[in-house]
Amino acid sequence: MALQKHNRKPGMKWIAIALAVLVSACSLEQQQWAMDKFVANNKFGSSADVWLVKRSMFDGSPIKVALIFGFGDDHEFCQEIAELYMKRYPASTYSCSFAN
């Protein structure tokens, strides 16, 4: 049985794979910068979106651990989450920071 050649153009599957490879080649800092830029320019819902931020136990630097969006008052909900986490993990410090 003869093998047939398929003349297919690259489809969406290959484009998605190529994008995934390019994104994975970026450093964590570059990915965080791209995410920050996107979120800053694209508010979701009626209130400002908010980052849930954890302070590093090693050097005190801020670590964005979650993006809160889609609630009536994103900041108020974020504050509630931060308080709950600090009760559950007393050695950790959480706060909220506006994303846009």
Q: Can you put this structure into words, describing what you see?
A:
The radius of gyration is 20 Å and the shape is globular. The model has no long low-confidence stretch (mean pLDDT 84). It contains 3 helices and 3 strands. The longest helix is centred in the last third of the chain and has 15 residues, at 74-88. The termini are far apart. A 3-stranded antiparallel sheet has the order 2-1-3, with helices on one face. It is of the alpha+beta class. The protein has 2 domains: 11-42; 44-100, no CATH class.
What labels describe this entry?
2 domains, 100 residues, alpha+beta, globular, 3 helices, three-stranded antiparallel β-sheet
The largest sheet has its strands arranged as 2-1-3
Counting DSSP H or I runs of 4 or more residues, the number of helices is 3
What is the total tally of β strands? 3
- Structural class of the secondary structure composition? alpha+beta
- Assign a percent range to the helix content: 40-55%
| Unreliable stretches | none
* Count of separate structural domains: 2
Question: What does the overall shape look like?
Answer: globular
Largest sheet: 3 strands, antiparallel
Mean pLDDT: 84
Strand content: 15-25%
Gyration radius, rounded = 20 Å
Span from first to last CA? 61 Å
What is the helix/strand order?
HHEEHE
Write the layout of secondary structure elements.
Layout: H1 12-25, H2 28-40, E1 50-55, E2 62-68, H3 74-88, E3 94-98
Antiparallel strand pairs: 1-2, 1-3
